[in-house]
Amino acid sequence: MTKKTYREQPKLVGVAERIKGKKAKGRAVEKVKAYQSVNTPIEYQYDGLRIVIERIGKEGDLLKVFASATKDSSAVTLNNPYLFKNPPVLVPDGTWHKEKRKVGKKEVETDMPNWKCHLKECLKEILGQVISQQVNK
Questions:
Q1: Domain edges within the chain
Q2: How open is the CA angle 112-114-119, to the nearest 5 degrees?
Q3: For position 91, what pLDDT does the model report?
């Protein structure tokens, strides 16, 4: 079992800070704007696939992603473009903090993950999940 590292939850920065307190529509618009600043192409491996994020754009308040993929060196047919509503911007940073939560009438202390804003990693994960489900049905 891996030993957990504990530290205070860091202050959120970048788009994570800008969306705090906004309504869903405002959060979605800010996230899409932020994602458009991610440099492409992005090549990575996910679940036996080699995925290339070729282009990132927007369609209204949706994140629009064009990608290509290969499996065992053969091209895979994809349903481009992929559209994401209100995409995630935070990933766990590998550290934890203690947080008190109310469970029924009791207050218990639980381990909670700390998060960091990392658009590229979030995009790789959500696109990887979708393409993997499509290809590995």
A1: 10-135
A2: 135
A3: 86
What span, in angstroms and rounded, lies between the C-alpha atoms of 127 and 46?
9
The structure tokens listed for 78 are 């994809």
What is the C-alpha separation between 15 and 122, in angstroms, rounded?
13
Q: Are 33 and 14 in contact (CB under 8 A)?
A: no
**Exposure string (b/e) for 24-44, b if CB count within 10 Å is 16 or more?**
eeebbbbbbebbeeeeeebeb
Q: Cis omega (within 30 of 0) on the bond before 88?
A: no
Quote the DSSP letter at residue 72. T
Calpha distance 42→54 (Å, rounded): 7
**Contact by Cβ (8 Å): 132, 47:** yes
Task: Give the pLDDT confidence score for residue 116 in this predicted structure.
Answer: 84
Name residues of the chain where pLDDT drops below 70.
1-2, 6-13, 16
pTM over 0.85: no
pLDDT, tens digit (0-9, with 9 covering 90-100), for 16-48: 677 778 787 888 888 888 898 899 999 999 999
